[in-house]
Amino acid sequence: MAEPTGLAEQVAWLVDRALIGDLLVEFARTLDAREWEAHVALYAPDGVFEIPGATRFVGHEELMRTASPRGLGQYAGTWHLSANHAITIDGDQARVRSYLIGVHLLGGGPADHADGGGWYDITLRRTDAGWRFATVRITEIWQGSTPLPHVG
C-alpha cells in the first residue's frame, strides 16, 4: 500500500501505527508480568505462535501452553525487549518485523539466566476488539551460553 496522502488518511495511518506499537509493548509486558490470559487475548482466536523447528501453537487454548506456568512461567522471571518496529499497514491487515532480546531467569539468582535474541515476524488483523496478532514467528539468531529450556 502506498503511503497515505490526505490528512484524514495520514491521521488514521498514524493512529493504527500507534495502536500496533502499543500492542507490541503489551505483548512483552503481559509475558513478563505473567498475565497469561491477557497475553493470549492479544491474539486473534485462530492466532499462531511459532518458533520454527521448536514449537508451534494455534488458537487461544494452545497459546496458553506457552504463555502459562508450564511455558514461560517455568522461569523465575522473564524480561522481553521488542524494538525497531518496522510496521506496514494494508487496510485491515498489517505486518511487523520487531527485533527482540529475551532474558529468562533460571532461579539461582540474578546472574543465572538463559538469553536469546533475533526478531519477530508478525502479521496482524484488525478485529472488533482492535488489532490482534494473526501470527507471531520468532527467528532466533543467538542464545547465551545457557540454552533456553522452553525452546528445545
Task: Offer a few descriptive terms.
alpha+beta, 3 helices, Nuclear Transport Factor 2, Chain: A, single chain, 152 residues, six-stranded mixed beta sheet
3D architecture notes:
The chain has one domain (7-143): Roll (Nuclear Transport Factor 2, Chain: A). It has three helices and six strands. It has helices at residues 7-32, 36-40, 59-66; strands spanning 43-51, 55-58, 77-90, 93-105, 113-127, 130-143. A six-stranded mixed beta sheet has the order 2-1-6-5-4-3, covered by helices on one side. The chain is elongated, with a radius of gyration of 16 Å.
What spatial form do the alpha-carbon principal axes imply?
A: elongated
| Beta-strand content estimate | over 45%
Q: Output the helix-strand order.
A: HHEEHEEEE
Number of domains: 1
Helix content: 25-40%
CATH class: Alpha Beta
Mean pLDDT: 92
- Let me know the number of strands: 6
Strands of the largest sheet, in order across it? 2-1-6-5-4-3
- Overall structural class, as computed from helix and strand content, comes to alpha+beta
Poorly predicted runs are: none
CATH architecture: Roll
Overall radius of gyration: 16 Å
